[in-house]
Specification:
Its cofactor is FAD; (6R)-5,10-methylene-5,6,7,8-tetrahydrofolate. The record marks 287, 340, 363 as: Electron transfer via tryptophanyl radical. Keywords: Chromophore, FAD, Flavoprotein. Residues 5-134 form the Photolyase/cryptochrome alpha/beta domain. Belongs to the DNA photolyase family. This protein has 432 residues and is α/β, with parallel strands linked by helices. It is 46% helix and 7% strand. The chain is built from 18 helices and five strands. It has a five-stranded parallel beta sheet with strand order 3-2-1-4-5, with helices on both faces. Helix 4 (82-92) packs parallel to helix 5, helix 9 (239-249) packs across helix 10 (251-269) and helix 12 (305-317) crosses helix 13 (322-335). It is globular. Bound molecules: flavin-adenine dinucleotide (FAD). Flavin-adenine dinucleotide is lined by residues 217, 225-229, 232-233, 256-257, 259-260, 263, 322, 325-326, 329, 347, 351, 353-355, 358-359, 362-363, 366.
Amino acid sequence: MSRQKVSFFWFRRDLRWEDNTALWHALQSEFRVIPLFIFDTAILNELPQNDARVTFIYQTLQNLHQQLLPFQSSILIQKGTVLEVWNSLLEEFDIQGLFFNKDYEPFALERDSAVLKLFSEKGIPVESYKDHVIFEENDIVKSDGLPYTVYTPYKNKWLTEFELQKNKLQPLPPISFDNFYKNSFEFPSLESIGFTKSTIQVQKPNLSNITYYHQTRDFPALDTTSYLSPHLRFGTVSICKLALWAVQKNVTFLSELIWREFFIQILFHFPNSVHQNFKSAYDGIQWRNNESEFKQWCQGNTGYPLVDAGMRQLNQTGYMHNRVRMVVASFLCKHLLINWQWGEAYFAEKLLDFELASNVGNWQWAAGTGCDAAPYFRVFNPEIQQQKFDPKGVYIRKWIPEFDLGYAAPMVAHAFARDRAIATYKAGIILK
Ligand code: FAD
């Protein structure tokens, strides 16, 4: 039997039908399109069985799959290493083209270049598109062609370019579901992929409070941020649509979306920042790295209510409010003098919105080792942060129900920890 001529669209961090760039182009090609998702064992093998992100990906794909069924089409789900999967699909189908949206993480770039090599050896065209960001790679660089490492000038250039290109940056027309390959691929169970359903669920985005975002975003008890982060991470919303909406709605909110792109371009240009201080001048810091203190921090038992509430929110929901993320990160690096990489790894394990670029970028920012970071001598006082941003203790009582029964003493006194942090940083800075 002759193999069917088809094109493939490979879903990765773009789990939606609407305004999906590579998918839209795939459907313009002359061949019917098979939408594919690969549960990549190179990643899955590192995750706990009930990983909440896997549940979210699975449920999202299931939903997309259901929407295709009335058109006698379906999503093909595969599990394995990416090259194994592609090798076997190349045997099974007469693939005429592969379409995917770009992913800028170091691991993804390596994976995609191996796939590109495989396809080019077979003479099959591969088309990759910008979709995860408004501006990528070298779209926003300094006049000398080098990447920006400071946020504000990056943001200004981003806004100028956005204004110039706004008319081109329109969402794509709706797709035709008739152009997919007609076949009902069996949708596997989550268990057959090796996972179980998590009790932690991703929240729906909430855009109802964005008008007042600049006034309310720092107060965790108000709960007025957008909850978009996992949706941007997995592409269940289109950044193009969102940015065009945000520019009309609230500039402070748009600035946050620009922070996301800032860190994505930093990671693209400086992939070593995943494992190294962005500023090598800080390589001499003598971290204390005390394991039992790290455990207290992870469990939310530091005796500082705001820190503990944040860590408990993270452990129970896979989410933490941004202001509180800044406070807990500063506490780990400065008060406990634990290397930011430990905190980054813990967040990576727990956060539903874990995004390598934002996580590394923000952790290095909090540690003072990153690009455009907070100066090392600025040490957040967790009690003052609590008075300012949770003055009535609504947020802390939500996550620490025993708070009013007499709360544990702080594991380290603020004034002592602050002086120790500043002295340790000062002694560790390598002057060039
Ligand atoms: P909103 O306040 O509604 O913001 C809207 C969107 O803007 C967010 O969804 C996000 O995409 C982006 N954004 C907002 N703040 C930042 C920021 N500081 N840096 C980059 N993008 C931002 N965000 C992640 O998406 N993944 C991470 O792994 C991550 N790790 C973090 C680690 C630390 C130590 C800190 C301090 C922050 C981290 N952030 C991370 C950034 C920020 O805390 C979250 O994006 C935000 O809290 C998500 O909630 P929201 O969608 O309601 O945010």
